[in-house]
Design brief:
This protein is an all-alpha fold. The chain has helices at about 5-15, 20-40, 45-65, 75-80, 80-120, 125-150, 155-160, 170-180, 185-190, 195-200, 210-230, 240-270. The protein has 2 domains: about 5-240, no CATH class; about 275-305, no CATH class. The N and C termini lie far apart (about 65 Å).
Length: about 300
């Protein structure tokens, strides 16, 4: 399925379970915030992995039309806390280490440039400029690293669900392999929700009750599709194909209706044009009314001939 088809199916499907899907995300955000506050910067590392696995579990079962409710979001804690915690901690550790290396490297570069400038000049404007440029580059580099880490290991929590016996390190490695050639698909899918994000900001977050479960449904659906593609099966059922075909037919019908209206309007415009008068007959060149011989004005439209 294409990105547009995934979003179309997600928009049609998630509404049937909107309450549970929204509650799952709200509880996840609340738990992470409480872990950050109460855990002094460490608590979120403990709950992040199991919560992510639980959210994937609820959304995946909904995607495959299997029975579930919001209580299943604690699946990661109940059934596979060790593996889910390890995967979440490994992903966070990789992101933190990579970001720290970049920050340290850029700090060293900034220090060297500043030292060289100080030895040849007494002004500090150059140092200030270098500092802000280096800071900007560092922030951009860290953001890119975080995004890439997120894309590389996006499949890891889902692999714990699909293959319960898999080890955390194997899930991380397999996720990297499965996301080869697919990172762009997930990234573009996320970018396609920028418009929704702007609307959420304009509505002071009120629209998140609709956008958040819609986005997560589309995201988990794409990750499931990537997994199924790697294993040579299709996750799309007959109902999905019927829905997509119906939408395509409706779109084609609307286009054909517009084309028919344009053609009808063209025919009407042509029919209202004055027809050519027979030879020797004097008619109004504006409305086509037959005029007496030598008439300077039309008796019907009143225009001068």
């Amino acid at each position: 399925m294409s990105r547009t088809e995934i979003k179309t199916i997600a928009k049609a499907r998630f509404k049937d379970h909107w309450g549970d899907l929204l509650l799952v995300l709200a509880l996840q955000c609340t738990a992470i915030c409480l872990a950050i506050v109460l855990g002094f910067g460490v608590g979120e590392l403990i709950v992040l992995g199991p919560l992510c696995v639980g959210v994937y579990y609820v959304y995946t079962r909904t995607i495959y039309n299997e029975g579930t409710d919001w209580k299943d979001m604690f699946f990661g804690f109940r059934k596979m806390f060790g593996n889910s915690f390890t995967v979440g901690a490994m992903i966070c550790a990789i992101a933190i280490i990579a970001a720290s290396i970049i920050g340290t490297a850029m700090g060293i570069i900034n220090f060297i440039i500043t030292a060289i400038q100080t030895s040849v000049s007494s002004t500090g404007y150059f140092s200030i400029g270098i500092y802000f440029v280096t800071l900007f580059i560092t922030i951009c580099a860290v953001i890119i690293v975080l995004i890439l880490t997120h894309l590389f290991y996006a499949e890891a929590p889902l692999l714990l669900l699909k293959e319960p016996g898999i080890k955390p390190a194997d899930a991380m490695r397999k996720s990297r392999l499965m996301m080869n050639g697919n990172k762009g698909r997930l990234f573009i899918l996320s970018l396609s929700f920028i418009g929704w994000g702007i609307l959420c900001v304009l509505t002071l977050g009120a629209l998140l009750v609709y956008v958040a479960p819609y986005y997560m449904y589309a995201r988990v659906m794409l990750l499931n599709q990537i997994y199924e593609e790697r294993h040579g099966v299709s996750m799309t059922d007959d109902a999905d194909m019927q829905r997509l075909n119906a939408m395509r037919e409706n779109a084609m019908s609307r286009k054909e209706a517009v084309a028919d209206r344009i053609r009808e309007k063209t025919v009407e415009d042509r029919s209202t044009e004055p027809s050519a008068a027979p030879a020797g007959v004097n008619v109004c060149k504006y409305c086509g009314t037959r005029l007496p011989e030598g008439a300077s004005f039309c008796a019907k439209c009143g225009k001068r001939q």
